[in-house]
Amino acid sequence: MAFFFGGPKKKHRICIVGGGFSGLHAAQYFKPEKYEVTVIDPQPFIEWLPNIHEVLSGMKKGDELRLPRQPVIERLGHTFRMEKVTDISANSLTTEWGKVLPFDACIVCTGNSYDLQQVPGANQFTFPFKSVESCQQIAKRLHRGTLSSRVTRVTVVGSGLGGVEVLGEVLRAYRARPQFEFQVVSPTQKMLENAPSDLEASIRHHTRRLPMEYHLGNEVDTVDREGLVLTSGRLIESDVTIWTGGAAPRSGKVQSESSQWGKVNEFLQSQHSNVFVVGDAAQFDDKVIKQAFHAVEMGRLAAENAERFLTDKPLKSYKPSHRPQLVTFGDLDTFMLFDDFAISSSLLGAVKEVLFTMGLLQMAPPRNAKDVMRHLDILQRSVRNVYLPTINPMAILDRWPKARIFRN
Ligand SMILES: Cc1cc2nc3c(=O)[nH]c(=O)nc-3n(C[C@H](O)[C@H](O)[C@H](O)COP(=O)(O)OP(=O)(O)OC[C@H]3O[C@@H](n4cnc5c(N)ncnc54)[C@H](O)[C@@H]3O)c2cc1C
To answer: Tens of pLDDT along 258-291?
Structure first.
């Protein structure tokens, strides 16, 4: 209870729906002395999604990429409820267990998911690339392929950032295995659609001696046990199909509440002025790609705007910042994509590892020596497993001179 003029003042109630990148950074903004904050999320773990592709090759274990959500939220002085929110109105929300939570302001941070319903068979016969658990399942299935002499055809659907990172990790672990074959299917005509064309040439160059096929400009029509049928009518055999594209808002009333992608104004407000929608769930501007740093920025701003709204101060507009995107291609290369050019060097992989450790530190700042040791241990393991192989002297000789600049 906060006090003013000698008497207790009721704290404003804030509900944060979804405790991922944006939700957690929104939660960090609020001081528990001033606000009664509840974070609601059905999942017990926060997952560091930008590095989950490394689970496919065994470079990272699932637990290195996860933080238990409850202690992280409680450490901020807030309450965590492990439930799914099914409905949000102007002043309250309802959870799947029928609990109604009233609020003064709400921040919706529910992310997005793949819409596999659109493609018959995709739900049943493909592996979505979306969580630590799904990557662990893919890793298990790939590993099974090593135990047999039969050919294992691995298909990556999608050639955006996720598709390239998944392909790179699969190649890191399995390109030396003669029984593995690889293919990419993508509706876009080129890999990393908005990046300079030479970058695709670079990817193809890295894979030129491998059993690798690219089916670009092709959509998947149906999937079955044997493989994929493309809209062109072509049939592709596939034993392990990894689906990396086609993000869609999470289904259900929570999203439909403020139209398909949670349409928001410049202050990130939905149709209810005290309900903000942020991160991947928000439909702000087509140019704002669904990336973690936008989600973090939006989460912080929505929290500040919620406070401003509740204290009758003018709200701040969201101005997305421009940052380069880091895309790893296994141990073969790493690309840094800027607006109108890109650079490549396998040594950039180390930057992603540092960002990973810094990100975890930001999400759960260490409280004691044990926490510090845990983070140091994770960084050491990352550097040893992922970065060091790229800086052995032979690799430097082989790769460093090949650091390149690509222009649009
Ligand atoms: C596989 C993968 C790889 C990626 N790689 C990169 C990368 O390299 N770099 C980068 O910048 N970005 C990357 N991204 C994108 C980045 O992870 C997202 O932009 C970011 O996570 C979005 O944050 P968010 O808070 O909007 O959603 P999320 O972080 O997805 O969090 C959403 C949370 O909402 C919860 N939730 C969902 N529905 C409900 C409900 N009804 N009630 C309550 N809670 C609910 C979920 O359980 C989840 O915890 C990647 C994404 C994926 C999936």
So the answer is: 445 588 999 999 999 999 999 999 987 777 778 8
C-alpha dist (Å) from residue 379 to 173, 235, 370, 396: 21, 44, 14, 21
Residue 141 CA, ligand 1 centroid: distance in Å: 24
For 152, 156, 214, the CA distances from 208, given in Å and listed in that order, are: 19, 17, 11
* C-alpha span between 26 and 244 (Å, rounded): 28
What CATH number labels 10-114+247-310? Answer: 3.50.50.60
Domain ranges of the chain: 10-114+247-310, 116-243, 325-407
Q: pLDDT at position 350, please?
A: 77
CATH number of this structure's domain 116-243, picked from the four choices 3.40.50.300, 3.40.50.10490, 2.40.50.90, 3.50.50.60: 3.50.50.60
The residue whose CB lies within 8 Å of the most ligand 1 atoms, and thus the one to mutate among 48, 93, 127, 280, is 280
Say how many Å lie between the CA of residue 21 and the centre of ligand 1.
6
Residues 346-386 pLDDT 10s: 778 777 777 877 787 777 777 777 777 777 777 677 666 65
In this structure, the number of other CB atoms found within 10 A of the CB of residue 399 comes to 18
Report for 33-42, 197-206, 240-249: range of highest mean pLDDT: 33-42
Q: What totals of helices (H) and strands (E) does the chain contain, helices first?
A: 11, 26
Which residue has the CA at smallest separation from atom 38 of ligand 1? 110
Measured distance CA(98)–CA(406) in Å, rounded: 54
The confidence score (pLDDT) of residue 395 equals 47
